[in-house]
Amino acid sequence: MTRDDDDREDDLKPAQERERNSESEQDRDSAADVGARLRLPPRFAQYLMPSMDAAVAKMLAPIREQMKSALPDYDALVKNALEPYSERIQSQVASIVVSVPTFTAPMIDFPALKGVGVSPSIELMLKQIASQQSAMLDGLRGSLKPLFDPEILSGFNRALLPPNLRSHAGEVQAHQVHEFLEQEGIPLYLVPRGRTALRLLRAQDRSGRRRVLGDCYESITDDCATVLEQANRDVVGDELKFVLDGLGAMRSGHFRSAQAMFTVTLDTLIYRFYPDQAARRLITNRKKGADVPGAIDEMGVHEAMVWLPIWNAHEQFWKHKGDKVPNYYSRHASVHGVSSRQFSKRNCIQVLMLITSLIGYADRLMSSAGRARA
């Protein structure tokens, strides 16, 4: 596919730029900018505590030589006995990220050592290790407690949620939204309204989510229209006019024509964000069962919320390989497998949500950049 780059002004900044909240939200969402750009480093929980194996080895070093003659298999015994507890501790530490300061760390008992000839001195030494573990975790809990005040955590969660869900921060966690979007081609950024988004999040399966799309067809259409009609046409460009034309066709009952219009316009917008073909393919080539691509993992929280459902909507579809046309929205099936199974009111509203979320994100991104320059 080729395009005439000279016919369109590159209005949108690269997708990697971060959004700020609109001025009307700054007072109640002061932490949102930080949240939108937040990235936790990989294996973050493991940085909180040294390896248990290393700590044990250091503690036992002074008496290692003395015990070799009395207990030749001492190294293997200690390693085998402590390995499950080391794994347990690492799992407990991982939970600290989401549960500090209320996390607990049960004391290590040693049932595995009963009846294997462990001497009283070794048992005492192991109990000392457990005691030191308890003291270390107590100290860590006390040190981190001021940073994880419940009110701070609540505000932090609210900042990470998309704007349409912030008024429901007490009912949903940001990580639940992210997990949903990793698996589903239905967006939750800016649209739909919070109560509908909660229904989508609480649906048990894809069929349940599609029922929500059908039940809330009219209100979701209105939610999308509100975002689109408020978007700055100078920022978004001609694509907005075509989306509004599709919206008009949709409201007149021509949802198939609207779905086709939304699909090709979504293609155009993706191209504007990712003109490089190799970079664009990371978003538009979703293999079944594939992990989230690194290009999305490296995005800020809100940016990833926009692109994850778009990536999911680009699940591979090969008509020549006999793939069955899915009944849920698929960009590739819409283009290469036209059928009444793919073109439906539910799929029309789904792709409208996708393109509305992206346009709304672009509008906020450029608006905040303009304020920053001013």
Write the layout of secondary structure elements.
Layout: H1 32-37, H2 52-70, H3 74-99, H4 120-144, H5 150-160, H6 174-183, H7 194-202, H8 206-215, H9 217-230, H10 233-236, H11 239-251, H12 255-273, H13 277-284, H14 294-297, H15 301-312, H16 331-336, H17 345-373
Sheet with most strands: none
Number of helices: 17
How many angstroms separate the termini?
A: 38 Å
Sketch the topology as an H/E string, one letter per element: HHHHHHHHHHHHHHHHH
β-strand percent reads under 5%
**Total of domains:** 2
Structure description:
The chain is mostly helical and 374 residues long. The chain has 2 domains: 104 residues, no CATH class; 207 residues, no CATH class. The protein is built from 17 helices and no strands. Helix content is 60%, strand content 0%. The protein is elongated and about 80 Å long. It starts with 31 loop residues before the first helix and ends with a helix. The N terminus is likely disordered. The longest helix is centred in the last third of the chain and has 29 residues.
Which terms summarize this structure?
374 residues; mainly alpha; 2 domains; 17 helices; 60% helix; elongated; disordered N terminus
Give a quick summary of the entry.
Helices cover 60% and strands 0% of the residues. It contains 17 helices and no strands.
